[in-house]
Automatic annotation (TrEMBL), chains A, B:
Keywords in alphabetical order: DNA-binding, Repressor, Transcription, Transcription regulation
Pfam families per record: LacI, Peripla_BP_3
SUPFAM superfamilies: lambda repressor-like DNA-binding domains, Periplasmic binding protein-like I
Domain of life of the source: Bacteria
Residue ranges of every copy of the HTH lacI-type domain listed in the record: 2-56
Keyword Transcription in annotation: yes
Name of this protein: LacI family transcriptional regulator
GO molecular-function term, one example from the UniProt record: transcription cis-regulatory region binding
Length: 329, 329
DNA sequence: TTGTAGGCGTTATCAC
DNA sequence: GTGATAACGCCTACAA
């Protein structure tokens, strides 16, 4: 490995002069600088990240932690993060799995963005307490070194639920996510609030898993007990897709016999026939904001928690209730 | 930051004793070891990755480089990589974008797995020449420090093409990937070889992009010049999905008017109606093998290039040509 | 403008 | 078994 020492030797100067030259310090002659740079290039010199991190006590790397590498939501989210990171001179690395957690306490990364329930609150608070900087996207957690950038789950679930009610549906299924999912819990809370203030509607909860398979199982249940038009709110799009696919094998039609709405507006939904109604938000912006907030904390700035707003996308997968249509006639 | 020096002071021993104790050396009393470990825990000691990397000249981290974070192929692939890495005491980080390339020469990672055309061959050879270890999944590149783990693109494309021919189709469209994609070029070569030895078939190439939008555009073209049943080989599944979705807006039916086959067998295809015919291979195995090979090179082992084998999945998206059915009657 | 020297946190080679 | 001590490659007062 070629180090500044080798350059110094070859250039006949001291290592500090080399360091100054390489770092663009003004306290070095243009002449010596260019000589040093030439030699550095000639020797294929590349600075050693470990040595620099050790000395400067920062790595200029931000880590984002995901539960797994699957999942359609992540593409734009990560792109948004990377864009902001790179613009600010940081690199972004994506990690997954318990083993990788060490990167934060061992200071391989300067800060972490968390979207992974494999991190417990206790663990995150422990790191925060030791002065590591963290942004959480998947929970509420209060600490001076932790910033929250959360989706407005309640608003989204409220929009979706009210939409179904407004369309006149009287039997509404809710397909939930995993029990420990913050998103699922939040969305469910909002659904219940709407349910509490709505009369004449039958509410049925089906436990799901935020995966396609959960949507398929839900579809089977809905088909099994079908008595007339029903509405279904899958708490994420992935389950809605599974639901659709299972239903496509039957004679029931989405938007006619079964009215379906999802949550997330993942890319694929725009390709579905009929277009899936869902809750939209900018994944890119979410990621970008998360990175921004983290970098601000890293620079010692004070930041407030942030919220990502959502909108309703009306798709043909939800039509007016037949009953209501009859009434209108 | 608490270092071994702090532990040494508190335990009344030297830093070398602490280091030995922490690293499980046998040359330290059980008594002193347990005392040291207790103090380490008490002080919340965490080793510093940069210092260790600097000294040991390795980071125990492997980096995988992707063109972008989207793409349905990546989930299982990355999981396969991670599994092997973790089992061997390495961590896996996912990187994207030109800025992140520096991680390799700066020795932040011990080796790289490349699936990203933002790396030029020249760049990779330069790194290999400087003794960095690399596994490539997306090109042929010969160097002692570079190992190839490539998909058997030619076999896959041959299987797909021959399947269409066997089913009696006489007008076959090929929707390609980007010009600079190794996969696209390889697959296309195989198609041409089949075409050269097949008579009475009209071959039509449509330039695509490996994305859904490319499939949609292709569908429009096929619809526009429709005169009778046609077969389409989309060189990846993502385009096939775009193709299907566009066609779903018309009265043409997949498997009847248009016969469609893809490549990759991404998860979603199994949910499609009708089931998409495609070329299958184990993404998890591909990733696992890539990691294995890289770790072997890192340990100084000699390795041969590897190949990932593929199989044909017959789906209802490809039926017999109507013409042939007539002949058979 | 350049050089000297100390230190970042670890590991590893010596002595004792 | 334990303790000095010298690296690893880089940065940065401070001195010259």
């Amino acid at each position: 490995m070629v180090s500044i020492k080798d350059i110094a030797k070859k250039a006949g100067v001291s290592i500090s002069t080399v360091s100054y030259a390489l770092n663009g310090s003004s306290k070095v002659t243009d002449e010596t600088r260019s000589k040093i740079l030439a030699i550095a290039k000639e020797l294929n010199y590349v600075p050693n990240a470990a040595a620099r991190s050790l000395k400067k006590r920062e790595s200029r790397i931000i880590g984002v932690f995901l539960t797994d590498f699957k999942g359609d939501v992540y593409g734009d989210l990560l792109d948004g993060m990377k864009e902001v990171c790179n613009a600010q001179g940081y690199d972004l690395i994506v990690c997954s799995g318990k083993q990788a957690h060490r990167m934060l306490p061992e200071r391989m990364i300067d800060g972490a963005i968390i979207l992974d329930h494999a991190f417990t609150n206790a663990e995150l608070l422990k790191y925060a307490e030791r002065n590591h900087k963290i942004v959480v996207l998947d929970r509420e957690l209060e600490h001076p070194n932790i910033n929250q950038v959360l989706l407005d789950n309640k608003a989204g679930a409220t929009l979706a639920t009210e939409f179904l009610v407004e369309q006149g549906h009287k039997k509404i299924y809710i397909v939930t996510g995993p029990d420990d999912s913050f998103d699922s819990i939040q969305r469910m809370k909002a659904v219940k609030m709407v349910a509490d203030r709505t009369e004449d509607v039958e509410w049925i909860e089906i436990p799901g898993d935020f995966k396609k398979s959960g949507g398929e199982r839900a579809a089977e249940r809905v088909i099994g007990e079908y008595t007339g038009p029903a509405a279904v709110f899958c708490l994420n799009d992935e389950m809605a897709i599974g639901f659709c696919n299972r239903l496509a094998e039957t004679d029931y039609r989405i938007g006619e016999h079964v009215h379906l709405i999802g949550f997330d507006n993942i890319e694929l939904t725009s390709y579905m026939q009929p277009r899936l109604a869902t809750i939209n938000y900018s994944k890119r912006k979410w990621g970008a904001l998360a990175s921004e907030q983290l970098i601000k904390i890293l620079s010692g700035e004070e930041v407030e928690h942030e919220r990502i707003y959502v909108t309703l996308i009306k798709g043909e997968s939800v039509g007016k209730s037949a009953r209501q249509v009859n009434v209108a006639r």
